[in-house]
Amino acid sequence: MVEDTKTQMAAAISATLVFAARRRPLFCSLSSSSSSKPNTRKLVLYSKPGCCLCDGLKEKLHAAFTLSTGPDSLNDVTLQVRDITTNPEWERAYQYEIPVLAKENSDGKEEVLPRLSPRLSAELIQKKLLAAFS
């Protein structure tokens, strides 16, 4: 009887994870560039479902990405959203810290950026991200 319950729970969890994976892509590009220039800068956002701070930061990042064009734009930046519940290593590292924003350096290593206040405007977030890449 206990084995049946464990099997049912495992099946339910598995089905939930598959459904969640279908609903939430692990990679989404917020770049709005229409040029043929390849994306050269990358941000990674560590997040998880049901995290209101994570959702708020995603919205602010989207707004910052769509603000303007020209030298003060983030058109060549891609954002990869990683669900920490899909990787035990990410979960151990960031379970008490999310949302965590990191930039990928030219050598492929990630550098965690200072936490952005939820009260910052999209304009200030854009400026901070541009400064992080300069």
Give the tags.
alpha+beta; 4 strands; Glutaredoxin; globular; 134 residues; four-stranded mixed β-sheet
Report what the structure shows.
The protein has a single domain (25-133), classed as Glutaredoxin (3-Layer(aba) Sandwich). It contains four helices and four strands. It has helices at residues 2-23, 52-65, 88-94, 122-133, and strands at residues 41-47, 77-83, 100-104, 110-112. Strands 2-1-3-4 form a four-stranded mixed β-sheet, covered by helices on one side. β3 (100-104) and β4 form a beta hairpin. The longest helix is centred in the first third of the chain and has 22 residues, at 2-23. It is globular and about 40 Å long. It starts with a helix and ends with a helix.
Number of strands: 4
CATH superfamily: Glutaredoxin
Tell me the span between the first and last alpha carbons.
Answer: 61 Å
- Which parts are unreliable, with pLDDT below 50 for 5 consecutive residues or more? 9-37
CATH architecture heading: 3-Layer(aba) Sandwich
The helix content is 40-55%
Q: For this structure, what is the CATH class?
A: Alpha Beta
Structural class category: alpha+beta
Q: Remind me, CATH topology? A: Glutaredoxin
Q: Could you give the order of strands across the largest sheet?
A: 2-1-3-4
Short description:
Belongs to the glutaredoxin family. The protein is α+β, with helices and mostly antiparallel strands and 134 residues long.
SSE arrangement:
Blueprint (H helix, E strand, L loop, with lengths): L1 H22 L17 E7 L4 H14 L11 E7 L4 H7 L5 E5 L5 E3 L9 H12 L1
Parallel strand pairs: 1-2
Antiparallel strand pairs: 1-3, 3-4
Helix pairs in contact: 2-4
Protein name: Glutaredoxin-like protein
Keywords: Electron transport, Transport
Family: Belongs to the glutaredoxin family.
